[in-house]
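Quiz preparation item.
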């Protein structure tokens, strides 16, 4: 067995050269964690000015724990970056700020509202979702700060366009992604070479699933924003989704407002993020619920993903997360 394949063997071999070898099973989460740490360290070693995208959501919370295991007790060799639509759930923003402060790491926040004020983003109507417009603010932040790599928490199981992407996703000098021209990643070898103006989007959690994320949160005893747990909230039913009733998402004519026990499987812009019916009030209950669900995370919660089958891939080609 080659050295490379041996590293990916579900049984690691320990012993001396004399042949005293024992086979010890490596836990699934340990393997995923080890791969993510390797990716993060490799990119930090090969790039000049990386950053980690941190929104306060569960995937970026796991990314922070990976960064802790990769680089502590030293400071992170990169800042945290959040592109804020200013239409995010206040519980998540409060968690974002508290977690960054707790870690003592630098948090850079750039606002879509600032892009609107500068004329860089033009909304078609005042109540339009700002989610897609984060691309402009993100690319401006990359240029402003000179970032050449961004760690993100995207996973391949989330959505079919994301399933096409490599762990190291090359972006050209315009910040765009070409799904038909990606670099091979055979034997976990990564090509981080960049021409001037280009950058990488790096996804250390590519091979994780939603269940892996929650099992890891449980194992590591990680805190998460309260809206991930079941709570009472006013919602309306719309196109098969439970839309939260807020100032940004008021009920439409003829819709009936009901109070339901719900939780959020993913968190993002209020205008396009929906909760699901749930009684899961702790992490163990969420793990059990995730084991039995047949609906994908984004399919059950994201209004903007229902507009077009090609919408996510088109957005990613233009520079979206």
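Solution:
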């Amino acid at each position: 067995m080659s050295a490379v394949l041996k590293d990916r063997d579900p049984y690691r071999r320990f012993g001396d050269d004399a042949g005293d070898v024992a086979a010890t099973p490596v836990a699934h989460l340990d393997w995923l964690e080890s791969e993510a740490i390797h990716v993060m360290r490799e990119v930090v070693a090969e790039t000049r000015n990386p950053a980690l995208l941190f929104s306060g959501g569960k995937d970026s919370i796991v990314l922070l724990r990976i960064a802790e295991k990769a680089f502590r007790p030293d400071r992170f060799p990169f800042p945290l970056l959040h592109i804020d639509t200013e239409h995010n759930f206040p519980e998540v923003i409060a968690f974002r700020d508290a977690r960054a402060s707790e870690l003592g790491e630098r948090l850079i926040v750039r606002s879509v509202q600032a892009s609107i004020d500068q004329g860089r983003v033009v909304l078609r109507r005042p109540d339009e979702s700002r989610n897609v417009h984060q691309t402009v603010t993100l690319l401006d932040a990359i240029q402003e700060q000179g970032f050449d790599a961004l760690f993100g928490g995207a996973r391949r199981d989330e959505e079919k366009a994301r399933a096409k992407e490599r762990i190291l996703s090359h972006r050209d000098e315009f910040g765009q992604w070409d799904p038909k021209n990606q670099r091979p990643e055979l034997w976990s070898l990564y090509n981080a070479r960049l021409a001037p103006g280009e950058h990488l989007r790096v996804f250390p959690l590519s091979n994780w699933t939603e269940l892996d994320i929650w099992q890891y949160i449980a194992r590591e005893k990680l805190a998460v924003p309260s809206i991930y747990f079941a709570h009472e909230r006013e919602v309306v039913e719309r196109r098969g989704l439970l839309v939260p009733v807020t100032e940004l998402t008021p009920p439409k004519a003829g819709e009936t407002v009901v109070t339901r026990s719900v939780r959020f499987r993913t968190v993002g812009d209020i205008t396009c993020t929906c909760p699901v019916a749930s009684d899961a009030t702790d992490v163990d209950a969420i793990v059990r619920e995730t084991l039995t669900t047949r609906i994908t995370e984004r399919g059950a919660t994201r209004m903007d993903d229902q507009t077009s089958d090609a919408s996510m891939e088109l957005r990613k080609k233009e520079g979206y997360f």
